[in-house]
Amino acid sequence: MFEEIDEKKRKIKEKRPLPDKTVESIREKLMLDWTYNSNAIEGNTLTLSETKVVLEDGITIGGKTLKEHLEVVNHKEAILYIEDIVKEKEPLSERQIKNIHNLILKGIDDENAGVYRDQKVVISGAEHKPPEPFNIKPKMENLIEWYKNEGQELHVVERAARLHTDLVKIHPFIDGNGRTARLLLNFELMKNGYPPVIIRNEDRASYYESLDKAHTTGDYADFIKIIKETLNRSLDLYLELID
């Protein structure tokens, strides 16, 4: 099921250490694409080029809200945090997930940043209904317990995809769940030697449909397929530059 992905990863590993400039250029491209698309999925109206200007130069774009600018800056900081904990080989924990979320909402909604929600919510356009607030803490504990046990028996791509899907299903935060889940997905991939995946804004309809299908039926196949396709794109980017 994941043979093609693993073969591409092996080819990249054989070429290591990669040239510093190549590594940095790929990192910058993936950070830009990841930040732009993850925010755009949630309604941020900054274009790819505008996101690049905010990321690299810190310039304010006329006609855009402060919130949209903060979403770009915060997402970059969350990626840097993930890179740090990958280097430190920290195991997955609720604390890490809350830290990621705290960075996502910093300066936007400080009261709820890194804090599990205490209100009922609905997911627009989805059939699935998130759990009541009093169920969030035990469900998050169960998610971490699953990850440490049954999850370790899965291929890392499937494990990362299910982590993302199940976090969104719990919907532990009042806002920022999607961005946090996509960061968590890539944290799991990156610490296992894979590049981050970029779920594109233009694919958000199929992305949301596959999530809701997993939430309501327990069938993760469509979502895992999306992650495989996006990971292949990231791996191909490396291969094109090093071949």
UniProtKB/TrEMBL annotation:
GO terms for molecular function: ATP binding. This is Fido domain-containing protein. Keywords: ATP-binding, Nucleotide-binding. The record marks 42 as: Important for autoinhibition of adenylyltransferase activity. InterPro entries: Fido, Fido-like_dom_sf, Fido_containing. It holds the Pfam family Fic. ATP binds at residues 175-182, 207-208. Residues 92-229 form the Fido domain. It comes from Halobacteroides halobius (strain ATCC 35273 / DSM 5150 / MD-1).
